[in-house]
């Protein structure tokens, strides 16, 4: 079983109008409301490949109910902790030539809400083979949330994969997750130096592998590097404005591949293809499209 922890799901409300006029009442022609978030998207990906995930997060107010109803209609089990603040929402006002965005402030979490989350997470992770930790923080800057989640998962023998986002990269890596996906800039923050050469990147990553991190994936501007306890793997990337890799979906894709006993090159291809897939716009991941993308990815192995 796979447990997906989404630190910040939210609801989008998209309004369309002929023309945006400031300081005037704008009449909208269409309204689209949809729950969104990296954990929701990952749960849909897991469901597509018959992994039956459990979605876990904090939800509050009407927007929180929308998220729970959205998952229920898609047969995705959710275990959410009720919070006093409303779940965040992103409002978009769109015309033919202009877009305006408004985002409500992230929810604030109380000590009781956090403690309840840790308690429920401990119980559910006990049943789970993998935990996928995704998303940005709520307003809890003093709370070492990601580190606590990793520690609890390890205690319950669940393999935790984390896409390092707004968490402190060093403290997350020091917590020794099963898999960490991060950007080169985050690795530079950990090392407190610029990492221009591939050997510099792999050296820092390998030092954390030696300390107990299972696998580390690092995105650079033109390549993806993956380091495990035996080898390094390099994937040249040719990214454009239209081709952006979703690191959260790479994290989820790696977990799916791990359950299928793929070799490492195939695992990397599958994970990256999940991050590149564009079919999600229709709330559906097409395995044929993912396979097509995999065939276009070249993985080079190198010694550490």
Structural class: alpha/beta
Tell me the domain tally: 1
Distance between the termini: 33 Å
Kindly estimate the percentage of residues that lie in beta strands according to DSSP: 25-35%
CATH architecture: 3-Layer(aba) Sandwich
Please trace the helix and strand order, writing H or E for each element: EEEHEHEEEHEHEHEHHEEEHHHE
Strand order of the largest sheet: 5-4-1-8-9-10-11-12-13-14
CATH superfamily: Ribokinase
Number of strands: 14
Tally of alpha and pi helices? 10
Plain-language structure description:
The protein has a single domain (2-8, 37-86, 108-303), classed as 3-Layer(aba) Sandwich (UDP-N-acetylmuramoyl-L-alanine:D-glutamate ligase). It is 37% helix and 25% strand. It contains ten helices and 14 strands. The protein has helices at 38-48, 61-73, 111-125, 145-155, 169-174, 184-191, 198-211, 247-258, 264-276, 287-295, and strands at 2-6, 10-16, 30-36, 54-59, 77-82, 89-94, 99-103, 130-134, 159-163, 179-183, 215-219, 223-227, 231-236, 300-303. The chain has a ten-stranded mixed beta sheet with strand order 5-4-1-8-9-10-11-12-13-14, sandwiched between helices. A four-stranded mixed beta sheet has the order 3-2-6-7. Helix 3 (111-125) runs parallel beside helix 4, helix 8 runs antiparallel to helix 9 and helix 9 (264-276) packs across helix 10 (287-295). The longest helix is centred in the middle third of the chain and has 15 residues, at 111-125. The protein is globular, with a radius of gyration of 20 Å. The model has no long low-confidence stretch (mean pLDDT 89).
């Amino acid at each position: 079983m796979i447990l997906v922890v989404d630190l910040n799901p939210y609801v989008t409300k998209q309004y369309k109008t002929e023309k945006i006029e400031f300081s005037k009442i704008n009449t909208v022609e269409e309204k689209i409301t949809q729950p969104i978030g990296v954990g929701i998207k990952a749960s849909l990906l897991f469901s597509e490949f018959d992994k039956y995930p459990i979605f876990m997060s904090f939800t509050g107010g009407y927007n929180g109910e929308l998220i729970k109803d959205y998952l229920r209609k898609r047969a995705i089990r959710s275990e959410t902790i009720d919070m006093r603040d409303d779940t965040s929402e992103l409002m978009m006002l769109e015309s033919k030539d202009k877009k305006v965005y408004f985002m409500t402030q992230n929810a604030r979490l109380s000590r009781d809400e956090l403690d309840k989350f840790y308690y429920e997470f401990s119980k559910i992770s006990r049943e789970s083979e993998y935990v996928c930790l995704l998303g940005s923080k709520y307003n809890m800057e003093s709370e070492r949330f990601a580190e606590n989640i990793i520690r609890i998962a390890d205690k319950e023998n669940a393999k935790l994969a984390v896409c390092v986002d707004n968490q402190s990269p060093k403290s997350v890596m020091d917590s020794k997750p099963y898999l960490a996906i991060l950007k080169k800039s985050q690795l530079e923050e950990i090392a407190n130096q610029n990492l221009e050469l591939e050997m510099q990147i792999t050296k820092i990553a390998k030092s954390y592998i030696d300390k107990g991190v299972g696998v580390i994936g690092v995105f650079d501007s033109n390549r993806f590097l993956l380091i495990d306890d035996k080898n390094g793997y390099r994937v040249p990337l040719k990214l454009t404005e239209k081709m952006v890799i979703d690191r959260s979906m790479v994290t989820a894709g790696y977990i799916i591949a791990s359950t299928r006993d793929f070799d490492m090159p195939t695992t990397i291809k599958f994970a990256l293809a999940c991050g590149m897939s564009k079919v999600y716009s229709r709330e559906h991941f097409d395995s044929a499209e993912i396979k097509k993308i995999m065939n276009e990815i070249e993985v080079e192995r190198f010694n550490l």
